[in-house]
Amino acid sequence: VDDMQEANPAVFELLADIAAGKDALITYSPDTVVQGFRGARPDLVAELPQLLAPAGGTFLERPLWTAHRHTPAVADAWLAVAGRISRRAGGQSARRLEQPHRPAQPEGPAQPGEEHPVEVAPGGTVEAHLLPSPVHELRYVAQRILEAQLNDGRELGDIAVIVRNGGQLSQLQRYLAGQGIPVRIPVAESAVRDEVAVRPLLDAYAVALDPAVLGPEAAVALLTSRIGGATAIELRRLRQSLRREELLGGGGRTSDVLLVEALLEPGALATLGIEGHSARRIARMIHCGREAAQAPGGNAETVLWALWNSTGLASRWTEAALAGGAAGARADRDLDAMMALFHTAERFVDQLPGSGPEQFLEYLLSQELPMDTLAARAQLEDAVELMTPASAAGREWPVVIVPGLQEGVWPNTRLRGELLGSTLFADAVEHGVEYALQLDPLSRLREIRYDELRSFSTAVSRAQQVLICTAVSSEDEQPSSFLDYVAPLGPDRDRRGFTPVERPLTLRALVAELRQYAQLDAGTPEALEATAVLGALAAAEPPVPGAHPATWWGLAPLSTEEPVVPAGGTVYVSPSKVETVQKSPLDWFVQAAGGEAATDFARSLGTLVHAIAQDLPDASGSEYLAELVRRWPALGMKDNWEGKLDFQRAETMVRKLAQYVLVMRSEGRSLVGVEQDFEVKLPD
Q: Which pTM does this prediction carry?
């Protein structure tokens, strides 16, 4: 049994049962633990002698001190981190590393004029870098990867980037892919059912089986998904078109109800223009899926194929994948996800012949562990590996980069399970009620920090030759103390300075820099040289994107020189827009042309109360409240505690409106008009 330090108490009990009377070989490293959030108990390794040899049997312990992976610098960095962890019984011999007799490893590259790289010992390099912002940190990570590949001759597969959580992982993946750096995420990080292309297909699958599950939120999610492809503006125009047709027909249903009905009844979208394109695709999917589900002999494969085939996206995604670039990588991953989903359905049907489509959906969505994952298909090319410590455990790379060492992120010392007391309950079950009640918040925080250190030590121990750790220092971000553990400051330095970030070694960055120099004064040598190089790049075959001036923003001719408002035309304004016109005419024009931000709840609530006041200007408090109850469903709020709080807020607003009306009456004022239109003709 390997990595016994990752086991929880149940695994220890299972080991005692299956190893009873047998020879057992067990290895563990109590200072490198990544499954603490799943109940790992590295302290229980001290009880292995009692578990495996309860009757005085033979129990031999052999410490493994030879560092076959680490160079001396990395080994010393790991020992510095492990030394900060509380030593438990059973781990006395775990913090000693000896170098084997072997030729010295080549040292990693040193930054020209750089103060931060710290050679802890001959052989290998450990570096700590401080950056002024998260953007600089992303750029620096990309810079070091490209330098290792282009200057040091390393393969991208020799480099791993290990981060604390999935949010950082997604951010790095997007940025590096945008820089043209191939990246690979381990299988364990991405279950097929959670892929952005697969999730809407499964949602449509569920609607095809039971149309009642399609609510307003599910409809919006389908329309704006990777398959639906509708933008916020297109969704807004779709709602307006459906609502307009409803009013022309004498109805009064809300756009939420009309949206759901349109997706379930494709004929309702026949009269719409381009704004209904995404809705027609989703409605066609659901219709084909329902027909396949109701057909005799229908199973998971037939329903999935009917849904996917009706989208018409196969050829489009294939062309995008073959074209390359960031969009091609996204399309390639989406196609891989679809292939993995269909393989999962094929295996399910083969294993359970005669099973219905409903059973497959339940099987896929109810898994607690991602058994069906997006396998590493079409990933034979050299790529940098991005992962969390849990996925990095048991592996090694010549170069490891550990970014995002921020206080509050790594280590994340917030108390877990405080809302429902789950941590207290777990301690009571494992250690007893008295022990759980004796633990104060300070003791829990200390144990959480030890867990974070064990996770960080796992990340550090994955490096063979070069370890690079980075953090951000700014008004909003504070670097983690972990940065100083791996590369402490020298005795002659009291603070760590910022590391300079160079231009990424990519064609895109080169073109951007050349364009910057080309726009200097025409006679300067820099401008002449930049212009010549841009011309060579534009004339290359294939041409380098962005090198030709025809593709530069700001140089294209105006699309029209006609006035915004025709001569003699009328400009319609409202009192609320006058201030916007005075502050920024450009903002007013963009909003008037339809470029408004999405309406949030506060604006929707204000509009609702305003409409009630406009329609019932002289009503009483009870009448206002009754009208609010009648119109409240139009906002589409959920019937939960948050929705109830929002309703209480709206109720307070209409009561204040009723009080205002009473005050106006008591002062002898009378209503003259409501929302009266007026016009003013201005001289030309």
A: 0.67
